[in-house]
Design brief:
Radius of gyration: 15 Å
Protein name: V-type proton ATPase subunit F
Number of strands: 4
InterPro entries: ATPase_V1-cplx_f_g_su, ATPase_V1-cplx_fsu_euk, ATPase_V1_fsu_sf
GO molecular function, one term: proton-transporting ATPase activity, rotational mechanism
Order of helices and strands: HEHEHEHHEH
Subcellular location: Vacuole membrane
Number of domains: 1
Helix content: 25-40%
Largest sheet: 4 strands, parallel
Keywords: Hydrogen ion transport, Ion transport, Membrane, Transport, Vacuole
Length: about 120
């Protein structure tokens, strides 16, 4: 991918629980396209959400859309699609696992931290 293609990557996307997404929207990251299908750069996941819906959102933000620079995903939600998160190796968008109000961050589960440890032979 050229740096020219990366110039379009200006948005932060969020896959998270209601509190996380609300906080991020209040911080100003929300974007809804003016196109017909009104694509959003966020999705709220709750206990009723299916793993397939999470996978579709992950694929949309990482594979389909070329305007996403960073994807923030709650770690407990990333656990539900761990295989997808762990096998994603592209530089853009950067996929960062974040804690939520009810689920603290566990560095042992973080895919990026595990890759760094493997690089350093830990």
């Amino acid at each position: 991918m050229t740096s020219e293609a990366n110039k379009n990557r200006t948005l932060i996307a969020v896959i998270g629980d209601e509190d996380t997404v609300t906080g991020m929207l209040l911080a100003g990251i929300g974007s809804i396209s003016s196109e017909l299908n009104k694509e959003k750069n966020f999705i709220i996941i709750d206990s009723k959400s299916q793993d397939e819906d999470i996978e579709k959102a992950f694929e949309l933000y990482t594979e389909t859309r070329d305007d996403i620079a960073v994807l923030l995903i709650n770690q407990h939600i990333a656990e539900r699609i761990r295989f997808k998160v762990d096998t994603f190796t592209k530089a853009f968008p950067a996929v960062l696992e974040i804690p939520s109000k009810d689920h603290p961050y566990d560095p042992e589960k973080d895919s990026i931290l595990r890759r760094v440890r493997r690089l350093f032979g830990e």
